[in-house]
Amino acid sequence: MSKSSIPASGEKIVRVASGQGFWGDWLEAPRRQVEGGDVDYLMLDYLAEVTMSILQKQKERDPKMGYARDFIGAVESVLPAVAKRGVRVIANAGGVNPPACAEAVRAVAAKHGVSSDVRVGVVTGDDLLPRLDELIASGHALANMETGEALSTVRDRVLSANAYIGSTPIIDALGKGANIVITGRSTDTALTMAPLRYEFGWGNADWDRLAAGIVAGHIIECGAQCSGGNCLYDWRNIPDLANIGYPIVEGHADGSFVIYKHPHTGGRISVPSVSEQLVYEMGDPHSYITPDVIADFTSIQLEQAGENRVRVFGIKGKPPTDKLKVSIAYRAGYKAVGTLVYAWPDALDKAKLADRVLRERLERLGLRFDHILTEFVGVSAAHGPLAGETHDAPEVQLRVGVRGGDKAAVERFTREIAPLVLNGPPSVTGFAGGRPKVEEIVAYWPALIDKSVVQTRVEVLS
Fold first, then answer.
1. What percent of the chain is modeled with pLDDT above 70?
2. What is the CATH number of the domain that holds 417?
3. Per the domain annotation, does 405 fall within a domain?
4. HEC states along the chain?
5. pTM score of the predicted model
6. What's the pLDDT tens digit per position in 149-184?
C-alpha cells in the first residue's frame, strides 16, 4: 500500500487531494496540492458528458488523441512528488483513449529521467462504441432514460458510448503497483473512493463505509467548488479567491472523514460550502446510485471541526443495482447564435424590433428551424419572464439562436443578422466578432445496461 499517514494516536489516515474538477480547471491546482502539504493521493477529474464526444471527434482525426491533454502537463508538474515522495495519482483523463494517454505520461517520465519510478495503470473496457451493434442485436435496447426511446432510432448518429465504471478496477491497478492510474469514463466519485477503499480494505458489502467513500468523492469531485469557489453563501466575504485552496479528504477507517485545505491558501471550507456541493447533481437524496453502492444523502452529518475543516460522518449505504449508466452522445443537427447590442434610450424596444425584423426576413426566405430562441441579455436572459421588462435598461444585448437539421438554413441565418447593423433599429453595436459560427449539435442520451455486459481490463505499464 502507499505511504499514508499514521498520527501519534496510531490511527491510520489517508489524504486524497482534489486537483481538477473538469477539463479546463486551474492548471496550477495539481502542483499546489502536492507541494502545499502532505497528501497520499491526487485525484484529477476531467470528464463531463459532453467531453466524451469532443474526445471521440479528436480521436477520429488522430488515433493518438482522444484524452484530456491537460493531464500530461499536470503529471509533469507533480512528477517529483510521484517519483520521490510516493504520491499516487488517479485520473479519468484517458477519455476514449486511455492507452494513448498512458503512453504520453510514460514519455514525460522518460523525458525527466524517472521512468523507473513511474508505473502507469490503464483501465479500459468502458468504451461500448465498437460493440453497439452487437449489444443492440442481442437485446440491449439502451433506451433513453428520459424518453424511453430505443437507441436504434439514432444509432447512425452516435458519436460515443461509455459505461460509468466504479472503483474496483482502480483498486486492482493500485494493488498491482501503479502509482498513476488512468481510466476512461469512471464515475467522478470512484476516483476518491478507490484509494480509501484500497487503503482501508473496505469489503464489497461494507455498504456504510463504501457510501462514505462515495460521499467524500462527491464533495471534492468539482475541485474548489466546495472550498469557496462558485459558492453562494456569504460570497462577498470569501477570502483571497485568487489564491484559493483546493479541497482534501482526510479519511478514517470507520468511514468518517474531514474536508480541509492547505494552510495559507484562500477560499473557505465550511458547513455551508460543503452543503452546497452536496446538493450538486444529487437527484434523489435517499438513493445516490453508483456502480459500487447506493448512498443515502439524508444520513450525512456535517460539523465544523475547526477553521477550514468540516467533519463528515454518519453516512449510510445499501447495495447497488445490477445496472450501469451509459453516457451516449449523438449528432443532433446544427446551431448558430448571433448577438447585437442596443444602447439607451429605449434599448429594449430597439432589440425587440430587431428580433421581429429578423424573424420576418427568415420567414420570407422560407427558412425552417426546429427551434428559434431569443434572449434579451440585460433584461430577461437569466430569469426569463420572471425578471419583467418594465425598466429602461441602459443597454440590451439581443441574442438569437437557431437550431435544426438543415445546415444550409442555419448558415443562411448567420448572413441575415449582420445587415441589421445598418438596416435595422438605431444605436446598435457589438458585432465586432463577425458572422456567427455554425456548430454541430451533440446531444446527450442517458441509458442503462446490465453490469455483466461490461468487462473492464487493467494493465500496469512500467
1. 96
2. 3.30.70.1130
3. yes
4. CCCCECCCCCCCEEEEEEEECCCCCCCCHHHHHHHCCCCCEEEECCCCHHHHHHHHHHHHHCCCCCCCCHHHHHHHHHHHHHHHHCCEEEECCCCCCHHHHHHHHHHHHHHCCCHHHCCEEEEECCECHHHHHHHHHCCCCCCCCCCCCCHHHCHHHEEEEEECECCHHHHHHHHCCCCEEECCCECCCHHHHHHHHHHHCCCCCCHHHHHHHHHHHHHHCCHHHHCCCCCCCCHHHCCCHHHECCCEEEEECCCCEEEECCCCCECCCCHHHHHHHHCCCCCCCCCEECCCCEEEHHHCEEEECCCCEEEEECCEEECCCCEEEEEEEEEEEEEEEEEEEEECCCHHHHHHHHHHHHHHHHHHCCCCCCEEEEEEECCCCCCHHHHCCCCCCCEEEEEEEEEECCHHHHHHHHHHCCCHHHHCCCCEECCCCCCCCCEEEEEEEEEEEEHHHCCCEEEEEC
5. 0.93
6. 999 999 999 999 999 999 999 999 999 999 999 999
